[in-house]
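Dear Dr. L.,

I hope this message finds you well. Following up on our conversation about the binding site, I have prepared a predicted three-dimensional model of the protein together with 5'-O-[(L-methionyl)-sulphamoyl]adenosine. For your records, I am including the exact sequence and ligand specification that went into the calculation, followed by the structure tokens. Please feel free to forward this to your student if that is useful.
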Amino acid sequence: MAKFYVTTPIYYVNDRPHIGHTYTTVLADVIARYRKLMGDDVFFLTGTDEHGQKVAQAAKKSGISPKEHCDMYSKRFKDLWKRLDIEFDYFVRTTDPQHEEVVKKALQYIYDKGDIYKDKYVGWYCVHDERFWTEKDLVGGKCPECGRDVVKIEEENYFFRMSKYQNWLIEYIESHKEFVQPDFRRNEVLGFLRKPLNDLCISRPKKRLSWGVELPFDTDYVAYVWVDALLNYVSAVGLYFDQAKFEKWWPADIHLIGKDILTTHAVYWPIILHALDLELPKTIFAHGWWLVSEQKMGKSLGNAVDPYALIEHIGVDQLRYYLMRDMVLGQDASYTLDGLVARLNNDLSNDLGNILSRVTNMIVSYCDGKLPHSGSITLQQTNEFLEKISNLVDDVSQKITELKIHAALESVNAAMRATNRYIEDTQPWKLAKSGEQEKLNEVLFQSTQVLAKAGILLYPVMPRKCRALLDALGFDGEISINEAKKDVLIKPGTTITKPKALFPKINLTKLSEALGVTEVSEKKEAKKEEQITINDFAKIELKVGKIVSARKAPNAEKLLLLDVDLGDEKRQLVAGIAKWYAPEELLGKNIVVLTNLKPAVIRGFESQGMLLAADDGENVVLITTDKPIAPGSKIR
Ligand code: MSP
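The resulting structure of the complex is given below.
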């Protein structure tokens, strides 16, 4: 049995949990649950980050001790995770005595090695980000990260010789492609490492800030909160306390983080681990942000979406599904209420829920509530349907392994749409009327099997709803990928029951009223501003172009050079589509060309127009014409 250790960032206790935090934790839970379905032995860690100036200040403001403040906020996170059915194995708090002890031991180890030295420090300090900046880092005299005021600080502090490890880290990242993901984030980190790395100030004098872990080699200081926080990933699995446990789980298989904390995880953390003579995590995966009106959702902007309110009005599993389905892992996603309602109504009410209720209803009405036997296949539609879904389980498993969660869910949804079509095409209610029992049995039998497969494949995302679905189908097997691969999951003769509607349709207006959100109408207003007139559109000249030659652009691996026939003229286009199309498959295709665009020189090649393509963030496909038409035809 392979082991799998997955972590979330530990959350600051100065914020109420919002949808952003919820996303990372649900994502970790979904990955952990899929791994369990695949047969792995899983350890899933989350927790709270409780030291530092912000916490001390917040506690002071409320007139309570920092520890009381932490207990209260930490519980909020823990309670929310319970409410969301998050199956974490351990919840670490940086105020746990064992964690604090690990921080001390680790710092002593690095100190004894000679990698920590004391120096005078003069710099600018941002209280919000708890970071020091040099004069030249500042932007307009303010913090370059958050734009807030900074204070000048002059004091003696301890520094960690990170610069010593810079070249080692560059080499490590370059030779371990899976270490920082997605790829473009690896490049970002390597870009950051091209500049000289400053040594890291790892202490705060107690006279300024006492809410932290005391340095073992100088009790006048506490540890910098990030060093303390990062060590949670090893303290939680027993470093220095339980060697067997530590060896079982470390190194972590994946640290899931938001893109905001990439540098701390992909630069500080590996260097700290290396200095501690510990292995590095296999993968650090940075996901994007949930945005509201193009801005990062968060407390400071006052646009944080409250998960509790959503859970109350749409349900736990529906929220989990939306978060997983609507974010392409690695990229930003926009949170909108109408997007959420459309997603849940389409995928869950109209597809999955609808099929379940149709199939169970028919089995109850036409077959006395027992799944019928299905003999040899008699319908052409059955063959086509089985062909379409034959690869479903492998496809989903593969996508999950590649962390394409949204795509895995899309595959299950496509299988559901195919089932709906199968039922529409075969019209089992007519087969029942005309007494074609064998055909009727076949349709109900096959639809039930694929519903059970969907129930297993979606279980990690919607555990409660899927359990209810599988119960309605009388499934008593093991919820595992191996089981889902079987042809027959529900045996003939099994009692099938009609479940209560699993995914009632959501009414957008009612939901926005219940949530007290005016976002819908505001969004419409915003859209109005963006609208263009027909005259604006008339400025754009689009024509059908036939590709007559295509070749790779020399020395520019992403680009293709295309010659396009536009009826009365031929033009060269430079298109960044080499990743998605081989030159030979483009020949003879009719594409859409923007012809009145100013010519531009791209990597030394002139592009006399632009082709149109659709881009879902992952794939790019060309827009072509539905039927043959003469090159040069106008598009309007
Ligand atoms: N305490 C540090 C992490 C230390 S880990 C050793 C921290 N905490 S945080 O409370 O600010 O939470 C950060 C994480 O919450 C982000 O990395 C991200 O995973 C998640 N999110 C917070 N806001 C988010 C969005 N708007 N969108 C998506 N996730 C975001 O940083």
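In brief: The chain has 23 helices and 27 strands.

With kind regards,
A. P.
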